[in-house]
Design brief:
A: about 230 residues; mainly alpha; di-copper center containing domain from catechol oxidase; two-stranded parallel ribbon; B: about 120 residues; alpha+beta; protein ne1242 fold; four-stranded antiparallel beta sheet; two-stranded antiparallel sheet
């Protein structure tokens, strides 16, 4: 079971492996492929849709597997943008994600918007139904950090900036946390074609039902109990 | 009899006036849709309807019926599932109103440029 950690809790070896894996997938053209895929589907069923969370969960796991092809122990760390709110946080050090700004011409302008607050996240975590939960998690909680980083991260091809993966890892964590706190809460479709068993954009053989249980996908988060309770997802 | 004709004319006059006003309004609205132009903080925003010829010539391409320009530069945009607009370069701020979104994009660009200048004043 892979353990996804807050980037602050990575060991030096883990940080190094993650950075090297990113350079590797950039050199193979995979980062640009993921960015193009995201841009292609941006205005379709991956945003403003009940598929927003499942689609990005599948997207992340596919990217993580690509990183693991470089080194099997790599997992995607997360950036909690309600805690790390400053451009001087270690996330942006040149020894970590800072180096990619110039190297990959990302045009970041850290601080271009306001970030979500811990209160907004907690209020959102308290929503009792999926259809009340995901729209608020998407906007403002998910949207604001994209604009705050600016440059490539603010556009439809945002996966071209490595911080995309740390940001979406946190969004995925928030979904996983909500699921664990609301066992049995059913998936609610937002429109035709966005149901539990409807195919995800790009992967016709994958549906939200396939990704509801993140433990079954082979990873857990560092905020979860060591022996996570088996939640019942419907 | 003449009293009845006079009464009929008095009754019909406002309807004619309304209809005339309605046509004028419709024509004005159509013109507004063809070209909407606005100055904002020293930038020129234009929303221009593409002609039928251009739409026919570019059939199959993912283009919008209206073209958004800021300072004569085309700005790519799209519509989300709920009908709200987003710009390709500024994709995580959504609005029902494209002109409003263009203004927000100008503000964002200005803020970003300032941040970059402060970071690297050379």
């Amino acid at each position: 079971m892979g353990l996804r950690k807050n980037y602050r809790n990575l060991t030096n070896a883990e940080r190094g492996r993650f950075i090297q894996a990113l350079y590797h997938v950039k050199s193979t053209g995979l980062i640009d492929q993921f960015a193009n895929m995201h841009a292609t589907h941006f205005f379709m069923n991956i945003h403003r849709s009940s598929h927003f969370l499942p689609w990005h969960r599948e997207f992340l796991i596919r990217f993580e597997r690509a990183l693991q092809a470089h080194h099997p122990d790599v997992t995607i760390p997360y950036w909690n943008s309600t805690v790390d709110t400053s451009p001087s946080d270690p996330l942006w050090d040149n020894s970590f994600l800072g180096q990619f700004n110039a190297a990959w011409n990302l045009g970041r302008a850290l601080g271009s918007a306001i970030l979500p607050t811990p209160q907004q996240v907690e209020t959102n975590q308290g929503r009792s139904t999926y259809d009340a939960f995901w729209p608020e998690l998407e906007n403002p909680i998910h949207n604001r950090p994209h604009v705050w980083v600016g440059g490539v991260m603010a556009g439809t091809a945002s996966p071209g900036d490595p911080v995309f993966w740390l940001h979406h890892c946190w969004i995925d964590l928030l979904w996983a946390r909500w699921q664990l706190e609301h066992p049995g809460a059913p998936f609610v479709s937002s429109l035709a074609g966005a149901g539990l068993n409807d195919p995800l954009m790009e992967w016709p053989d994958r549906t939200p039902a396939d990704v509801l249980d993140h433990h079954a996908l082979g990873y857990t988060y560092d905020i979860e109990p060591i022996e996570p309770p088996r939640a019942v997802f419907t | 009899m003449s009293r009845w004709i006079a009464l009929l004319v008095v009754m019909l006059l406002p309807i004619g006036g309304f209809m005339q006003g309605g046509w004028e309004e419709a024509a004005e609205r159509s013109l507004r849709m063809e070209l909407e132009r606005q100055e904002y903080k020293g930038h020129r925003i234009e929303l221009r309807a593409r002609g039928a010829d251009e739409l026919r010539a570019r059939e199959g391409e993912p283009i919008n019926e209206s073209e958004l320009l800021i300072d004569d530069e085309p700005i790519r945009y799209g519509q989300l599932l709920d009908g709200r607009y987003a710009l390709h370069e500024y994709a995580y701020d959504w609005s029902d109103n494209l002109m409003d979104l263009a203004r927000r994009f100008i503000d964002y660009r200005s803020r970003s440029d300032e941040i970059r200048r402060e970071r690297d004043p050379r």
